[in-house]
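Give me the fold.
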Amino acid sequence: MLNSAMIFRLYLFIILSYIVVIPIALSIGSVSLEWSNPDTMAKIILMDIRAPRVLMAILIGMLLSTSGLVVQSVFINPIADPYIIGIASSATFGAILAYLLKMPDFYYGIFGFVCCVGFSLLIFSISKRQNITTLLVIGIAMSSFLGAFTTLGIYLIGEDSFKIIAWLMGYLGGASWKEVFILIIPVTGCLIYFYIKRLELNILLSGDDEAKSLGINVSKSKRSLLIASSLGVAFCVGFSGLIGFVGLIIPHTIRILLKTNNHSLLLPMSCALGGVFLLVCDTFGRVILAPIEIPIGVITAFFGAPFFLYLAFQKSFKPC
């Protein structure tokens, strides 16, 4: 039985969080802005640097959290994450490839995105006639294989590999309005697709046999959902590098608070909370040691690692 009062309080909390956090994120940093009488430089910092960064953090947080929710539901496992399918290793490989080709830093994200998409489609093609568990094993195995090449590449590059390592830690400082407008497209597309599939996601949690008895093509449904999740995360990687644990923390937090596995609620709640969560993490990383910035992936790991251990010691993942 859903608690309507809890749902209302959670929605209210998320809305208030956006109202409070966005102005703070726009105001504070290595340069403090005066809202009462901003000069030309302050307006440039606000509109060209901080505003797109704030929106980028929100959009990526939304996409990572909902993608994580979908992957957890497909595998019926609270510690599942899109990165286990090979996103991390393929992104690293792409960044190293861009470096070896002597491309500018901007291309780390582009090559990372292309490799993420290619790698995801490859493992789904290889495992086309296998069950979903085999798909997971194939993804992990190929990820480890590709990881060996990337580790060797970083080792051979030596000290110059710092730029790649920094990118892999996650960074939103290069956000621009052009990137925000581009990212809106995959974010909107993925969110709409996930919400259309919300009833299928609910049924999949009941097990493959029951889903089949209700007329669901389980294999096709799971693969399409995983492909959409992987592509969504690949876009995030392309614009921000690797930011882990968002897709792990947010969906499970919503499940704990609402005590439900109804995706009609989980998807919008995870989307909204994921956006403000990543914005808080990015703002915290910008100001705690200002003017030095802590990579956002480091901040999310501080929250995510203990949460992952908590989930790992849970006995099961039971629908409410």
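The chain has one domain: 57-312.
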